[in-house]
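Weekly modeling sync, notes
Attendees: S.R. (lead), two postdocs, one rotation student

Agenda item 3: backlog of single-chain predictions. S.R. asked that every request posted to the team notebook include the full sequence so nobody has to chase files. The rotation student volunteered to paste the first one in as an example of the format we agreed on. Action items at the bottom.

Example entry:
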Amino acid sequence: MAQPTEQQTISRASVGLRSERGPILLSVMLSVGLIAIDATILATAVPSIVNDLGGFAQFPWLFSVYLLAQAVSVPIFAKFTDLMGRKPIMLVGIGLFVLGSILCGIAWSMPALIAFRALQGLGAGAVMPTSMTIIGDIYSVAERARVQGYVASVWALSSVVGPTLGGLFVDFLNWRWIFFVNIPLGALAAWWLARRFHEQVVRKQHRIDVSGAALLGVGSSLIILGLLEGGILWSWASLPSITILTLGVALIIVFGFVERRAAEPILPGWVFRSRLLSSTNLAGLGVGVMLIGLTSFIPLYAQGVLHTSALVAGFALAALTLGWPLAASMAGRIYLKIGFRRTALIGAVVIMIGAALLDLLSSRSSIWQVAATCFVIGLGLGLVASPTLIAAQSAVEWERRGVVTGTNVFARSMGSALGIAVFGAIANASLSQRVGEHISSTASAIPAVVLEQALHKVFLAAGVVAVLLAAAVLIMPNRSMTAAHAAPS
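Predicted structure, as returned to the notebook:
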């Protein structure tokens, strides 16, 4: 029997939505905005939180546990969107995030705040893949890149609004308001989505893959935990590091065997057997590595080597989040003419050019040169991330689009964890070799020349990742746009 075309799939998933897509998109953008602002607003409040709750040694977990919970829950919630529909999972995600925000706002200790941040991360793990899947449902292939550009612009705006709001709340109100502000925004997003978004989901009895979800959640948690904290809480060659990473890998291997027998697996085998899906997921992994490398080390370079203020360094990095949505909005017109693979290849080349520009930075560079470099890499990331995701979504029917989207988002999250570990290890190894030659072990500052040498090694590693990212894009099959409108048999 012939498979439904892309247009038929959209119509089935969104009957009566043509006049209401705008409000649905606004609701999705508002939901994503909650996640995006939360990613930047907390950093400005850390000193006040530590002064109030204590636990200075524990505060890095405010960020790590959020990233961990988000990453491991993405594929699980993505599978549920295919089983139960997009709307209920999106509402659950918003509800978890708002509940976590309320509890964070009333937290009485640092351990409590860390636990409630994990709840926020679970909400984010539901919102991110579901929002992208909804866009894939209600917009055609030709429209999606432009709409993805709108969503990406939310991150660009949040990179400026988040730190600003955080500073205002800390200076004039209280750090707890950085969490309470999510309550009205989340309520508005949920109300708007509940009222406007109507989907037709075929209801049937499902066999939830509980064992697969547990193995994936625990296994990936251990791997991400080992990558995030290796070289920080414990050395890479220590017993805790080896034990955690080995156990995590072992559980993922067991997960693979369990999924082969599951009636409705969390991550079906066809995701990994498809050349298109495997290559787009590898590209997502590379995007995650590049993104975390820039956001973690560009501000450090600007402040430690160029001696700019934190605010100026933040605005230089914001050029990345300006280039990304600009390129994503243009990608639609490009891939309609030359295809997904060639569009992503152009983006990969632009990323490699940006990585080369990173290596040209020096202590004599201006902050404008740093910003221009970030902008170029942002353009490249936008030309890779949107076409590869949309190519993956367009290759499957409605019932599989959630899994495909969630796997891509999960790959990007794993890339971020891997990037933090690899780039951090490179920087720490360089500093440990050089610091003793310049300053004593009790010194509180690292000379700019030493920091510059360490960060240049990180930038060289980013160049290698850019090449590997281009190789992943080259693996993509060169599907025509006609094929993109047909679901596979």
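Discussion: group reviewed the output briefly. Residues 16-203 form a domain with the Growth Hormone; Chain: A; fold (CATH 1.20.1250.20).
Action items: rotation student to repeat for the remaining queue; S.R. to check formatting next week.
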